[in-house]
């Protein structure tokens, strides 16, 4: 009897922790009742606890059925095999996917559009492990079987493909560490002047056409390619893949 009481106490304590996770991290949440009735993230976490319980007992089909029904209702798909620690808060929810072998520590926060997925190249453990207090911003994708260290923040829209050290911030695509232990990580943080490979290629082609036109003009004027003062210099087309055959008209 005592054991049964303890089990129930554990159930209600976990439920309270899940509600508390929302209340403490969403300033818009005003009461526990509001969380229970209005938060898809809370609903998805509760339903995952049941699905995972069934999964661990090898009741795979009912577990998948619960998970998929919840996905349709909340837009949050948590595979029943995923291991989710207490205090997970999924804000807004829509478009969140958590893969089968993902492991989430305590007090993890996920925003809408987050994927904790695989790259499609691995088998076995193929989804990430998020340690305690990790925050993953809206739309971020964390793909692969690596670990995101505790207290790390993944910026909105980031695509993270490798290990993230603890206490660091990762942003961009591909994700780069821009802050570690509160200090800038000493790499280029310029998010505005990004390289534009298409423009660079066009510029290069423009320069090459200019060089070819110069060559043709000289040849038209009766100069031989061998006589050209540019031969072998930076501006010579031969030096840039023009081949050894002299240009003829
Ligand atoms: C990454 C984040 C957690 C901030 O972490 P932080 O450790 O406090 O980092 P900072 O704000 O000091 O930013 C560090 C640098 O990364 C840049 N950065 C921050 N977030 C970024 C993002 N999502 N994408 C690209 N760059 C980003 C900042 O501009 C800053 O660059 P700077 O030093 O050149 O100015 C936050 O920006 C973020 O993306 N939060 C997600 C919030 C969210 O999804 N909300 C949805 C609500 S519905």
Give a verbal description of the structure.
31% of the residues are buried. With 249 residues, the protein is an alpha/beta fold. It has helices spanning 2-25, 32-38, 40-56, 60-74, 197-220, and strands at 76-78, 83-84, 89-90, 96-98, 103-104, 109-110, 115-117, 129-130, 135-136, 141-143, 147-148, 153-154, 159-160, 168-171, 176-180, 183-184. The strands form three sheets. Strands 3-6-9-12-14-15-16 form a seven-stranded mixed sheet. The chain has a five-stranded parallel sheet with strand order 1-4-7-10-13. It has a four-stranded parallel sheet with strand order 2-5-8-11. The protein folds into two domains: 2-180, Hexapeptide repeat proteins (UDP N-Acetylglucosamine Acyltransferase, domain 1), CATH 2.160.10; 197-240. The mean pLDDT is 87. Residues 92, 111, 135, 137-138, 153, 155-157, 169, 171-172, 178-179, 189, 191 line the site of coenzyme A (COA).
């Amino acid at each position: 009897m005592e054991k049964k009481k303890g089990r129930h106490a554990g159930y209600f304590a976990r439920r309270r922790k899940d509600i508390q996770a929302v209340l403490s991290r969403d300033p818009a949440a005003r009461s526990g009742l509001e969380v229970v009735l209005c938060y898809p993230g809370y609903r998805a976490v509760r339903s995952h606890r049941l699905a995972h319980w069934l999964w661990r007992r090898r009741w795979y089909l009912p577990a998948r059925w619960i998970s998929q029904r919840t996905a349709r209702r909340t837009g949050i798909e948590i595979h029943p095999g995923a291991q989710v620690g207490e205090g997970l808060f999924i804000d807004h929810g829509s478009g969140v996917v958590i893969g089968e072998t993902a492991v989430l520590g305590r007090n993890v926060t996920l925003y809408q559009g987050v994927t904790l997925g695989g790259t499609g190249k691995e088998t076995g453990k193929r989804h990430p492990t998020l340690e305690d207090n990790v925050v993953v911003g809206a739309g971020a994708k964390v793909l692969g079987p690596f670990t995101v260290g505790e207290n790390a923040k993944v910026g909105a829209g980031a695509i993270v493909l490798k290990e993230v050290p603890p206490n660091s911030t990762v942003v961009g695509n591909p994700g780069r560490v821009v802050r570690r232990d509160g200090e800038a990580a000493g790499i280029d943080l310029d998010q505005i002047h990004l390289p534009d490979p298409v423009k660079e290629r066009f510029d290069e082609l423009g320069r090459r056409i200019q060089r070819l036109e110069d060559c043709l003009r000289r040849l038209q004027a009766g100069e031989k390619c061998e006589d050209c003062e540019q031969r072998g210099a930076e501006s010579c087309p031969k030096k840039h893949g023009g081949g050894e055959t002299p240009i003829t008209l």
